[in-house]
Each structure stands twice: as structure tokens, then as C-alpha cells.
Amino acid sequence: MLYPLTFETIFKDKIWGGQKIKTILDKDFSPLPNCGETWEVSDVEGNVSVVKEGSLQGKSLHELVEQYKDKLVGGHVYAKYGNRFPLLIKFIDANDDLSIQVHPNDELAKKRGSGFGKTEMWYIIEADKGAKLNSGFNREVTKEEYVKAVADNTIQDILNIEPAQPGDVFFLPAGRVHYIGKGLLLAEIQQTSDTTYRIYDFDRVDATTGQKRELHTDLAVDAIDYHHYDQYKTLYDKKLNESVNAVTSDYFVTNVLNFNQEVEHDYTHIDSFVVLICVAGALTVEAEGGHSISLKMGQCVLIPASINNVTLVPDGDMTVLETYVP
């Protein structure tokens, strides 16, 4: 029988990683000196999440999708994605700027034999004073102008730089050039893909190998959306005790829940699993069948599609991201 599922955290050491996974998200069991990412719900090959608790403990997420199919992920989700769980949930601690990068869309990824593309979103949890990030270009850019900027090392001159504060949301469709800036701790929701084309890495040298990290400038050229957009930050209404939609895309819907009182949610109509990601405070998730899960900041729970009703019981003020496949 399915129940709300929590998973063992997968830790990722990164050249730009820091200590906030431990100090702010309280994941002090990280074995890594510079933990840049944790993967909380993942079906990426070689990094598949394993159930942490309950009767399914030790089972992989991939095994569960194969076994329970639409009961776990929802009918329309299983019809589209089959045995591949479609979303990857991460926390990211940028102790330094990440590389300037871009991800392919589905069409290009499949053409190149790398599965699905990568559309993603960020929710800023913590931001050092003056922290910034890049989303897109600061003007219309031609492919030729872009190639020249990469070649003569002026790529940063054409990037759109945004200040970032806790609670900010940025939606990044595949093809949008981006990087996470130093001093940001965030939650990332994305398609199940680990395909990244690194454009520029600030001339960093890996302390272990003494080498610069590989760039993928040729692969990036045909993946990029060169248009300029008026608004890069995702605007949404920050309301208390209401579920507020922040992102609706072909790949995921994400709502922001700021609550300090008990709330019941009926998921009958969505025909999808739901992942609840706690990004502030703490709460208890009570599900039909008498199941109860405690969550605090930095923790997630996967609600199977077969569970229609949950009650969120906050411990004071809490903020949760609620995401599912439309």
C-alpha cells in the first residue's frame, strides 16, 4: 500500500558549494566538505532516490514507478512518461557563482540522445546581502553576437542580472542562459534531466585536478533562446493562508503555501503525484489512512496520486512549495 514517501538525501560535492546545507538546512550528516547540492527526489540514472521510512524502505523511486505505475504518479503522467519519474527536486547552496550555462529543450535533447530537456524553476530560501543571479539576456542578441561574446570573453556584458531575495521565484524554460550567483540558497524543481551545457566557468581551476572544468560552448549555441524578455522574475501574490500559484508550465505546476493555520487539500482533480517541499518553518502532513509525516525546512515528501486528501498542520509560520505535473 502506498503512503507519503520520504527519501534518503543524495549529497553532491561542488567546486562552488559551501556550508549552508548543514548550517541552514540542518543536514549535518552530509559527508562532503563543500556540499553544493542535495537531490531530494530523483530518478536520474545513477542517482535514484531510495525510500527512507515505512514498509517500502530501501526501495528505489524507479522500482516504485515500475511497480505502482499510475497509482504512484497519476494516469496522465504515466501515459506520458512511463516508468521514468518526471521531476527532480534539489536544494542548492551557491558559496560561489555557478557556471554560466544553458539546458536543451526536449526536442534537442532527444535529437542528441540525452533523454528529456531541462526546464526548471528556483525558489530563493536565503540570500546574502547583495546576492544576484542571471536569467537570460539584457537585450536582443543574435547567434553571431553571442558566439563573438563567448570568444572574446565578454559574455557577462550581455547577461541580464537580477537581485535575489528570499521568496523570489525564477522560472527558467529550457534554452534560457542562466547562473546562480554567490550567496544564494534555493530550492530547484526541474525536469528529470542532468544535461547541462557549460558556457563559461569564470576561469576556475579544480583544486583536486588542477584543471579547468569542461565547457560545452559548441553544444550550447543551438540550445539557446536569444530573445530578450521584459520580465525574468516570476511575479506572484504572497498571501497568508492561501495557496498561490507561482509557476504553470507543461512540465510542472508549483504553488506557494504560506500558512500558520491548518489546511486541508483535496488532490482528486489533478491525477498526479504531489511533492511538498518545506522551505521555511515546520509542519506535519497528515494523509488518509492514518499516515503522518513531520517536515522541516529542507525536507520533502512525495504524496502518491492514489492519496487524494492531506491535511497540513503548521508549527507556527511555514512555507511549502506544492508541485505536480499538470
UniProtKB/TrEMBL annotation:
The keyword Metal-binding applies. Its cofactor is Zn(2+). GO terms for molecular function: mannose-6-phosphate isomerase activity; zinc ion binding. CDD domains: cupin_PMI_type_I_N_bac. The active site is at R198. One of its GO terms (biological process) is carbohydrate metabolic process. Residues 245-317 form the Mannose-6-phosphate isomerase cupin domain. Residues 8-111 form the Phosphomannose isomerase type I catalytic domain. Zn(2+) binds at H103, E120, H178. Keywords: Isomerase, Metal-binding, Zinc. Binds 1 zinc ion per subunit. This is Phosphohexomutase. It comes from Spirosoma validum.
